[in-house]
Amino acid sequence: MTAPRLGRDYHLLWSAAVSSRFGDALRTPALALLAATLTRDPRVIAAVTVAAQLPPLLFGLLGGVYADRWDRRRTMAVTDGLRAAVVGGFAVAVAVDRAGVATLLLVAFLLATLGTLFDAAAFALLPAVVPAAALPRANGRLQAGTAVAGGFLGAPAAGVLFAVAAPLPFALDALTFVAAALLVLALSAPPSPRSCTFRPGEPGAKPQNEGHKCKIAGGRRRDQGRRSVWREAADGVRWLRGDRTMWRITVLTAASNLAISGLLAVLVLYALDVLRVPPAGYGGFAAAAVLGGVAGALGAGRLAGWLGTTAALRVVLAAQTVALTAFALARHPVTGGLTLAVFAAGSTVWNSLWASYGQLHVPADLLGRVGAGQRVVGLLTAPVGAALAGLVGAAYGTVPVAAAVAVIFALVTLAAWRVLRPAAPAPPPTAPPTTAGTAARPAPHPSR
After folding, report:
1. Which of 89, 107, 252, 358 has the lowest CB atom count within 10 Å?
2. For the chain, where do the domains classified as CATH 1.20.1250.20 start and end?
3. Low-confidence residues of the chain, pLDDT below 50?
């Protein structure tokens, strides 16, 4: 059977995402390098990272509301335009030596805040530009493209460009946002979620996503009065909580993020002290994880086709548990790198299939809010995992952290095999009243 074509609009969206990810990979290490030139206080440098991590938790649900209220294509383009203006202005401030610590914190916070709206709109837009059967493959290719752009191209180039001229990586990042905005504007205008609004409770009312079309079977279209953003955000969380399979996948993601974030927090120390990776070789060690992630992303669609989504998710967790156990036992750079690559492959497969499952099952006019709810719940445990790993690592070393991560994944895998039952999926609940309007798990960065 021939796989459905992804089409022109998908390739434009893919190019926009890859361009934006390349710019992110330039900016993030450049911000850290710039912070290190301003201060050697670890608390201040860590605060820059925290400033970028808070907005998804603070504003993620609101971003989902506006992604459902507004035209998603234009929302993505305007958001990228605003991000280009922010980064471009920051590049000028760096060039004239006016970028202090407060400016770094503000820029990191603003960009991450705008990113929450962009991510919610992008998640909700994808089902409108590719056929439903192609979603696992489409998400996998997005994961692979952004991994290559970030891990192999952007991150290595950031240090070189910063050494040439400190404003250079930020100026180039602004250009990538402009390019991404233009690519998104070139998309064919998808149908507005307004055309998918239906009266809940009517017999047979059921949104159906079919490629570029979103139609109502048995439901009567109508425009409803504008409700408060918090009530609309609660609609998305309520829908997510009411769908048994999606809620369980989200909780499993949060549990695994507790472990993954802890591993990432001490990974560099574990690699240098336990695996004996030479400092000059750490870049190659990290590249193994990127390669594994790309391989997993490209194979996600086939795995879903062979096993089905929920069965594939269970198999992925089991494979990651084995890989983490081997990683915790490894004492050589090659063995550690190979096992980390397998684990990273599993993470990108999970990300791709988790996103695809939601895009297939959530009503079109709730996609932004439900997707935002998934990301917020999934990321709640990441700061906790990092903090716990830091405390345990400081007190007992990094080896117990790696062992604990493997144990947590084993428990998550056992839970998944118990609660994810592909043979009898629960039907999605009826969508609550919504306003008529218009994933992340770390792998191996905190966004699984």
Report:
1. 89
2. 7-185, 229-419
3. 194-224, 423-426, 431-448
